[in-house]
Amino acid sequence: MAPEVARLGHVSLETPNLEESLSFFHDAVGLEIVESVDDTVFLRAVDEHDHHSLSLTEADAARIDHIGWQTAEPEDVRRFAEKFEQQGFDLTWIEEDEEPGQGEAIRFEIPNGHRFELYGTMEKPEPPAERRSKLKNRVYDPSGNNPVAPHRIDHVQIWDPDGLECAEWIRDELGFQVQEYYDEADGSRWGTFLSACEAKIDIAVVQSEHEDDLPALHHVAYAVDSPNDLFEAHNAMNEHGVPVDGIGQHGISRGEFMYARDPISGHRVEFNTGSYLTLDPHWEPIAWEAGDISDGDDHQWIGGIDSLERVHY
Amino acid sequence: MAPEVARLGHVSLETPNLEESLSFFHDAVGLEIVESVDDTVFLRAVDEHDHHSLSLTEADAARIDHIGWQTAEPEDVRRFAEKFEQQGFDLTWIEEDEEPGQGEAIRFEIPNGHRFELYGTMEKPEPPAERRSKLKNRVYDPSGNNPVAPHRIDHVQIWDPDGLECAEWIRDELGFQVQEYYDEADGSRWGTFLSACEAKIDIAVVQSEHEDDLPALHHVAYAVDSPNDLFEAHNAMNEHGVPVDGIGQHGISRGEFMYARDPISGHRVEFNTGSYLTLDPHWEPIAWEAGDISDGDDHQWIGGIDSLERVHY
Amino acid sequence: MAPEVARLGHVSLETPNLEESLSFFHDAVGLEIVESVDDTVFLRAVDEHDHHSLSLTEADAARIDHIGWQTAEPEDVRRFAEKFEQQGFDLTWIEEDEEPGQGEAIRFEIPNGHRFELYGTMEKPEPPAERRSKLKNRVYDPSGNNPVAPHRIDHVQIWDPDGLECAEWIRDELGFQVQEYYDEADGSRWGTFLSACEAKIDIAVVQSEHEDDLPALHHVAYAVDSPNDLFEAHNAMNEHGVPVDGIGQHGISRGEFMYARDPISGHRVEFNTGSYLTLDPHWEPIAWEAGDISDGDDHQWIGGIDSLERVHY
Amino acid sequence: MAPEVARLGHVSLETPNLEESLSFFHDAVGLEIVESVDDTVFLRAVDEHDHHSLSLTEADAARIDHIGWQTAEPEDVRRFAEKFEQQGFDLTWIEEDEEPGQGEAIRFEIPNGHRFELYGTMEKPEPPAERRSKLKNRVYDPSGNNPVAPHRIDHVQIWDPDGLECAEWIRDELGFQVQEYYDEADGSRWGTFLSACEAKIDIAVVQSEHEDDLPALHHVAYAVDSPNDLFEAHNAMNEHGVPVDGIGQHGISRGEFMYARDPISGHRVEFNTGSYLTLDPHWEPIAWEAGDISDGDDHQWIGGIDSLERVHY
């Protein structure tokens, strides 16, 4: 039986100024700081049991280091490793706890240049006692910190000069399910929206404008409860002086969104809500065509997105 | 003691196709039809006791006929009439029930060409029994009809080639209170936001782009409960194929908005929520200057408005 | 490899008066009618692609007929059948389309007397054109019908005189994952909350008060978007004159709820929102003990439930 | 012309332990501390410009000191004073700034034993720079502190052994408008809901159970945005270990509520949303009779209230 990816775990980002990036990701967005090791800070959302869903490392420039995926079983890491070594990939082994809290892992560039990490286990540290929720099935007390703090990592969106090929590799080699896709009038694939967990979209692979564009991360999305929260979060971003790139609703996924960017690094966070669950074992991908969503040329159902900036590896 | 205006009552609109306009105002927006007389249909929102807050008349073109204001006391109509006749205004007397449900009224053009109506009383017809709410302080059963139906008329926005003069006339002659105003970098007044009831903004007077622009209505706003409802209403407008002009939050008034337009007439409705009450008897107008609200050039705090189309008298 | 259950599919209910029950499930709750065959009406929620998530059959009394579960693969039906026949269960085969829209299925009583159905496939009929959403990933236009219509079936709650044994059978024989459980001070298991899909709770198994209580259904839950919607739905139930049993938030699952009951049959619907997703491949069940949730004796975190009525098979 | 009350200003409360009461009113509820003078702390909500809407004084027991009402004009204080002196009331003059931030005022017991204060002006101190909102029409940055912080004081509810007489005195002598009232089956008045500002309910006067009950304060209400916020606030109260007395919706006023109490003093705060505005200059009081609201015996439309505890003067 093939090894499996269970879910999106985390993104590892680099920033030219760790302190300023923390004032975005911690102070403005409301992620909790779990641990600091050397020049790296590990953060998670208030509803997350696992050690981190985002890491920030100070470096000479803003870059994305890797996207971390948790395998279904711990031994799937070695089984994926065997398979990809046979295919000639150059794997880097990450020892247990080399990335704090994380079990043994592999990192490698997928054919289209994105750097993925596959790991099997992650520690679940208790929050500090004064931040612990009184509810056993909640991690942090949601009333104790940031009014707009999102719950959990939801998905990532990457851009690729050959979006279709990239999406097909992820589907075929990692076993993801295609939830939706969008084809332009010329038949080219604009975007593919895939699921590792099969319950919701975990990654969006979008076609770059130019053939020689570098592979890039457009955003990491964190989940909030309702459109009310998107307005509250947008207000908070404005109050923090953080640049925002739109509020509205995607047609694809039906997800309602608000985008904000770390001013120093350009890393973008989507506050996200309202999408559907795919519990259907026989899900047929939603096939969009040009013209199906008519609100402007950025494929939105409500509102729009002002900026296409993205960050490279 | 000077006669007083108590509140915004209604807007009277003309449309080239009554049936199509009803499919916007009734079917899509969710206003209730109270009465039809000849070529005019009278509508109100689900929480309104009074006979109508909007009328639609079939005519050769889309126009605004008048904006109706209810006086504090019925006798204020005659007192306003005396005052404005002395000032040389050309008043038209509207007999009781000539506009259905309405007591004696006057209509006239204010100096800047907008047509106002002042009336003192309005009937409060019961809704049909099967639509009557079980709660005595609610009019229509909110679960019986349109999921996005707003509660009550909130305010109007008018455009004027001399916005400052127009706003000052409304303040000085009708006794409105200035809640907020916005001055451009060159010192010109972009907009003045006034209250008849002193609890909230009832009318926004905005400067036209060009000196020879005609006086116009930009929109009539109806109140909903929360930003959730704005997204729901936007979805409904998209499903109805109705054009929309943006979702977001104004800086001025802090009102959260969604704009939609009647396709046939161009009349625009704002779904509106989230503004504050001014209960302070010593309210000092909020004085905005250029640069105070930085999100683009349309003075929004969140999102933006795509279209400046408006309808003339 | 063992056959698997993929998700909760539907509940089949009996009512002494089909028409009156429809005025609850269709008119008040907002489920859509898909098909009527003889004395049975098949309904689904506005976001559901599959043929039905609830059926209502006129009978001499209110009863629950069966709870339908969809297997991961169509062939899992036969594999489950082989297994349970070997174990001596008395299986009833349901031919394709005998239950409209449904593929081949088996029905049987589990050891604790609950009647389960396992089926592999279900048709996905298009809604009537005038009710079809303009969004390809949405089924019905949400603005076209009932303001409080929930999205999709979420879970069922059953009561059993030996709740622990019943829950363990479901876990061990159907392969469900335990998400949470609650033990009373005397060590007895009050409730077990299990997942078929592993992303969320699909069934709650709760201990009956008395040893000789019959196996029963407490409620079927349908998902809405936010606590706002719970208040709207509660208002709608009051306006429809439908009995309600509480609004609040469970501690277990953190789900926010509003309960309403079909007046004629007593079948109860939970409007449900706010629970979390379990995407963690190494989920450890949340283990509650007496005293962990302090709000009264009905284990609620917010509010309470007034009535423990339930319906038997 | 008669002197007028413009609005509810503040409540002055006494507590046996100031520090513990602050951990309720500031830490849990989210009111901002404006100033501390001797044993008194002055607080306001995040949207309030005026110096305080609540004060807490350490004393030997929990008591209510007075309810403060702002007059329409500063000179109305002296005009009310003349009138009430003529009527034989025993007035206490409060010098300007004797109650910090407040202009000259009078305090006196109304016939039914409630202690009212009438003041004309109140300072509007700027918040600390780091807490100032970037929006000129907002006071505090709402993202900078407590996630559940309400916006502004909304109303008070008092209990009186002769509720009808008390309400009529407030209506006749202070010029309040009756918005709604509720009569029991025996014709006795259970409650009267009055407005000083005429836009909404400012005070509820409710009949005590027993003739010899002392005049009391049941709660002070602060406004939030939506039912979502009520659930969030309830969660926050639970996390803080603060006692709560119910979540739901009143039939009278249609206000949605959540009640919480300061554990040390018993002073109760209502988080409140969803009521309507009365902009109608000819408002006719809503007249409820026994049986109009059927949800239990506490006159609620949704949910209920667990505790009738109240605090005396």
UniProtKB/TrEMBL annotation, chains A, B, C, D:
Protein's name according to its UniProt entry: VOC family protein
Family indicated by similarity: Belongs to the extradiol ring-cleavage dioxygenase family.
Molecular function as annotated in GO: dioxygenase activity; metal ion binding
Oligomer status and interactors: Homotetramer.
UniProt-listed PROSITE patterns: VOC (PS51819)
Top-level taxonomic group: Archaea
Region forming the signal peptide: none
Tagged with keyword Cell inner membrane: no
Keywords: Aromatic hydrocarbons catabolism, Dioxygenase, Metal-binding, Oxidoreductase, Repeat
SUPFAM superfamilies given in the database record: Glyoxalase/Bleomycin resistance protein/Dihydroxybiphenyl dioxygenase
VOC domain segment(s): 7-121, 152-274
